[in-house]
Design brief:
single chain; 179 residues; Tetracycline Repressor, domain 2; 9 helices
């Protein structure tokens, strides 16, 4: 018998896990459902992951790395404080939680992090990287405040029934980053 080569299997499993979480939440995600979605044998799940917790940690780490990469790219492209302020506004209004999928994944991760130190490590790493990107342009105190503003306004934007006026965001960013 020839062994089937499938070098992308582990990645497909992680991607399938994220898609299932976005659709059904963590509570609605199981090894069996992930295997079916990833089109892999159920045995592949235990071959690649010691259990559901390891799979969830890998999936949420991938998700947070993807989100923070956009953050780092946008702030890395800013060549001045004015461009960095505009980048922060863009992150809030154009990037973060722009899709219902990302909103659900973020909140599912937060719920796990509220209960479990292992998942809190993922959110802590996410915040540390976000703040480091902000500190390229702003003081550590301003970066921490901006990070909280970004988080809060992104959630408000995603859950509010009325569109958010970006001028308020521009004003808040200017106040926080004023010399």
């Amino acid at each position: 018998m020839t062994r089937r080569l499938d070098p992308d299997r582990r990645d497909r499993i992680i991607d399938a896990c994220l898609e299932l979480i976005a659709e059904a939440g963590v509570a609605g995600t199981s090894h069996r459902k992930v295997a079916e979605r990833a089109n892999v044998p159920l045995g592949s799940m235990t071959y690649h992951f010691t259990g559901m917790d390891e799979l969830l940690r890998e999936a949420f780490t991938r998700f947070s790395d993807t989100v923070v990469a956009v953050f780092e790219e946008r702030l890395g492209a800013a060549g001045s404080v004015a461009e960095a302020r505009a980048a922060v506004v863009g992150i809030i209004h154009d990037d973060l939680l722009a899709s219902p999928r990302d909103l659900v994944l973020t909140h599912e991760l937060y719920a796990l992090a509220a209960r479990s130190p292992e998942y809190r490590q993922i959110t802590h790493r996410w915040m540390r990287r976000s703040r480091a990107a902000l500190e390229r342009h702003f003081s550590p105190d301003a970066a921490a405040q901006l990070d909280a503003l970004i988080e809060g306004l992104s959630i408000h934007r995603a859950l509010d029934t009325e569109p958010t006026d970006s001028r308020r965001t521009v004003d808040a960013v200017a106040r926080i980053t004023a010399p």
